[in-house]
Amino acid sequence: MSGVTGGSHACEGKAGGLDGPYGDEESTFAAEPPASGRGFADTWWGHAWLKALEDNALEGEPLRKGRARARAGAVGAVSVRPGRITAVVRDRDGGAHRTDVLVQELPDAEWERFLEAAVARAGHVAALLDRDLPPHLVEDAAAAGAELLPGIGDLEPRCGCGAWDHCPHSAALCYQVARILDRDPFVLLLLRGRGERRVMRELNARAAAAAGAGSPEAGPGEALGAVRDERAALGAVRADEAFAARDILPALPDPPPLPTGPGESPPLDTEAGAGADVDPATLELSAAAAASLAHRMLAAALAPDAGSSLLEESELTVRQDAVRLAAAPGASGRALVRLAAGSGRTVLELEDAVRAWRLGGAAALEALEEAWEPDPVADARARAVLAAAWADRDGPAPRAEAGGRWTVMDGGTQLRLDRRGRWWPFRREAGRWVPAGPSDEDPAAALAEVLEGGA
Questions:
Q1: Is residue 196 within a helix (H) or strand (E), and if so which, with residue range?
Q2: What pTM did the predictor assign?
Q3: Pick from 5, 2, 11: nearest CA to 291
Q4: What does the CA dihedral 304, 305, 307, 313 come to, rounded to 10 degrees?
């Protein structure tokens, strides 16, 4: 399994706002699918970002390779916070690198000039209320001495591949940011040092102060409130009124199609550091496992027979849940060592348990690690099934062992009967029995692939 090499430490969704548990000082954007046949920017903002990238790069070859990597969907979830963007970028060979691009934050004096330029025109205020960052505002701010778009030297790449300048990984990340800016140009404000809610609060305060200078009774937010009133007069509808009229409104569109796979979580091992009892690698693994489970549950819920096929998983024990986490995509290294120790296994035993889990979940894990003695009725039934399965085969039937297990006479393969009446094939490797395939109600069918040299 390919690991992620670290760089400098530093679904589509966003982290909470400044009034929520995390503040609006970080946003996370889900990985994008491959983008064959289309450009990376559709808006003024995306194109302006790409121009800044090309002006900063010393060589064209890393940009070309990075553009190809981004187009192939190799950039994972992108984390954006003041002065830094972060993502894991995959190589063609399956390897991956933690990649950061540092962006110069604006000093307070330049933020002051930007806010002054924003409140100077009512059109800028109206656009900002509509979550639009108009290019004219950027031009006005630049004229006042506040440059939002990065200039030469403002983009500093740092990548786990060891490159000293822009490499294909950092270039791919920057191309992905162009897509993000197409949808949400406020991300540029966050990169330059201030999140959207903070900017809007400060803008509101300045507008209120400007209104107060002309009217002693003007209160906080009155200037922006006047803009909201003007928009309402043009036909805006309150959310509660729209909800009350839901029965006479057109039907909602069909839900979007099921994603091809679970989303990727962003890197959590950041410069902020973690507490002594928090392991970022294990936390990332837990997030990946939760995303995988959520995707399977969504797939079951959207299936045609959702009423009967909705995923129902019994509560797992600590030992079972450790294997479930270890089987999640991206599990490796320190996280596996901790999961093995926490579940009372060696790393080798955990690897065998993961192999079983991927073949059949908790039932396959039980066949690997738990022996049970069938009662006389179950034992007689199992022997009859084996005898019938081997009636047309050469050689004697498997030899009965303790714990509901039957070993084929060559000594290298084994069948294990579970409590549900299904047979699991095992192969002997390096002195231990390891899972060799999925289960089957027919013991001969379960073992056929193993005997023929299959998985």
A1: helix 196-214
A2: 0.51
A3: 11
A4: -110
Q: How far apart are CA 79 and CA 88, in angstroms?
A: 10
How far the first Cα of the chain sits from its last, in Å, is 18
H-only helix segments in 279-346: 280-302, 306-309, 318-326, 333-342
Alpha helices for 130-191 (secondary structure H): 135-144, 168-183, 186-191
* Strand 96-103, strand 4-5: pairing: parallel
Query: One digit per residue, pLDDT tens: the chain, 455 residues?
Result: 334 444 433 333 343 333 333 345 788 898 888 876 566 778 888 888 888 777 766 567 888 888 888 888 899 999 999 999 999 999 888 788 899 999 888 899 998 888 888 887 767 777 776 777 878 888 888 888 888 888 777 888 899 888 878 889 999 999 999 889 888 888 988 999 988 888 888 887 877 776 655 444 444 345 555 555 544 444 556 666 666 666 666 666 777 788 887 877 777 766 666 667 777 777 777 787 788 778 878 887 777 655 444 444 557 888 998 898 888 776 777 788 888 998 999 999 999 999 999 888 889 999 999 988 888 888 888 888 888 887 777 666 788 888 888 888 766 888 999 988 899 999 988 889 999 988 888 888 888 767 655 44
The dihedrals phi and psi of 167, each to the nearest 5 degrees, come to -115, 175
Decide: 424 and 435 in contact? Cβ < 8 Å.
yes
* Residue 342, CA distances (Å) to 275, 292, 302, 323 in order: 19, 22, 36, 11
Beta bridge partners of 78: 29
Residue 378's identity, in one-letter code, is: A
Residue 393: both structure tokens together: 């085969």
Q: How many CB atoms lie within 10 A of CB 282?
A: 18
What gap in Å lies between CA 38 and CA 31, rounded to an integer?
A: 17
Q: Which residues contact 325 (CB under 8 A, 6 or more apart)?
A: 285, 286, 289, 331, 335, 339
Phi/psi for 426 (5° steps) reads: -130, 155
DSSP per position, 114-137: HHHHHHT-HHHHHHHHTT---HHH
Cα 79 to Cα 70: distance, rounded to the nearest angstrom: 16
Q: Quick one: tokens of 50?
A: 């790409």
Identify residue 313 by its one-letter amino acid code.
Answer: E
